[in-house]
Specification:
The structure is a homodimer of 270-residue chains. Chain A has 270 residues and is of the alpha+beta class. Chain A folds into two domains: 138 residues, 3-Layer(aba) Sandwich (PSTPO5379-like); 110 residues, 2-Layer Sandwich (PSTPO5379-like fold), CATH 3.30.2040. Chain A is built from six helices and eleven strands. The longest helix of chain A is centred in the first third of the chain and has 13 residues.
Chain lengths: 270, 270
């Protein structure tokens, strides 16, 4: 990261993350700024994944894609280092999670391609400001995430099931939550399901596949949004020789205000 | 192509093209239907090109991308065969044009990836209906296309200059032409330049780099649109070992009405 003398919450926070001073989940950090999921793959798998993202824009809204070997962002942050500026990563070998480091500099290689995807943490602040409670923020937890039985559109070697995040919303606020999140098409947009979790293949809300469980109070409906952990489920099935992702909930905090992002940041390249 | 018993101008025309009964340029065929540029590359270059298209959406608006080895469309036409259903192709080896066949079945391989991009022929019919003259249609010619000095955004190994198509428009209709074409974001949209060709590096309008020259009458302004031949200029510079494209002006005629396409057909995958 170039030190431009600027000081903003994302830049300050990413500096602390790069120094290892913040290693936890990021849901409550820098409210109002867009956060991003990360997928890093060798060049041989990069076409498969880019096509997968384009065919599955709901879980995988592209914010930025870097050239092979390039670790520095241009669009979502000015010259941030993808190897250091996320609080925690997951390292995958042949579809198996093997390590959760806080820095991946030692794993970097010239053929690695980095993909940043929108994240629903980006609209949590807008929900709160609209009076919609966001339980994982209230409980200071990571958001609960679940594998579903909904299949992704296949692309070359990648497929797998949709992963969703869940927020319990009071019944009379569900429409408002849908309307507010629907404005953030670049951060998964409106929910994909509400109500009975079994309908989308979730057996037990108290045992999320990723993140923490949160309290569901009487009169609240579980509401489910497409989630940027979906690629991790696809990688577990396709078993590429090597991959790095963010650890669920441990996101890249961008310099962009959440309302700035649309479905596709790549058109604003220059 | 499956014969579904349907009969439409695109399906009938593609059948004739597949049988070798039509081998010429397509500007006047099936007015009102979207036409598409084609780029076929080996898998090793597919990521580079997909990233190039996303970073250069004005010349390269993606309509459909096929899986490696898959020659059949799903989105822009029902099961059309990319190897037969364009009237003429260009075959490139190390950046050199080596052949212009009317069928590429003998060149097909399991690692080839096909990309379809929007084409400005898609809005010619809307221009005519709005009362804007389209000279290459009047003169029954291919549209004139020119290399410019405007650089594309680089993506991995691909870069090169923007290529534009040109239509001479009466001065008092230029705004209407801009407005009408601007509605077709998936087919290059509004013009990128009007007036002095030298400003964008074009020396002689009578000698187009691709297609035919057309008459420019007194009181008419040359108006330039981003063109889907831009990838061919990029391939000439990057020199991948093998590539196939459409021959300029010899497009794939889709089953989609021009007004149906937006900037990004890939979200409608399923």
């Amino acid at each position: 990261m170039t030190d431009t003398g600027q000081s903003s919450c994302p830049q300050d926070t990413r500096r602390k993350i790069a120094r290892g001073e913040i290693t936890g989940q990021t849901s409550a950090l820098c409210p109002g700024y867009a956060q991003a999921n990360l997928v890093i793959l060798p060049k041989d798998w990069a076409f498969d994944f880019l096509l997968f993202a384009l065919r599955n824009p709901k879980p995988c809204p592209l914010m930025e894609v870097l050239d092979p070997g390039d670790p520095y962002t241009r669009v979502i942050a000015d010259h941030a280092d993808v190897r250091k500026e996320l609080p925690r990563y997951r390292v995958w070998r042949r579809g198996e999670l093997v390590e959760e480091p806080t820095d991946i500099s030692h794993l970097w290689a010239d053929d690695l391609v980095s993909f940043f995807l929108g994240c629903s943490f980006s609209f949590d602040d807008a929900l709160v400001k609209a009076g919609v409670p966001v339980r994982h923020l209230e409980q200071q937890r990571n958001v609960p995430m679940y594998r579903t039985k909904l299949p992704n559109a296949k692309a070359a070697r990648l497929g797998g099931p949709l992963v969703v995040s869940m927020r319990p919303i009071p019944l009379d606020q569900v429409e408002k939550a849908r309307e507010v999140s629907g404005r953030f098409g670049g951060a998964h947009g409106a929910p994909v399901h509400q109500g009975d979790p079994a309908e989308i293949g979730i057996e037990n809300l108290e045992q999320p596949d990723f993140g923490d469980s949160v309290e569901i109070r009487p009169g609240e409906v579980p509401v489910f949004w497409a989630c940027g952990v979906t690629p991790q489920a696809a990688l577990m099935e396709a078993k590429p020789p090597f991959a790095i992702t963010h650890a669920p909930g441990h996101m890249f905090i961008t310099d962009l205000k959440a309302e700035q992002i649309d479905g596709h940041g790549l058109g604003n390249w220059d």
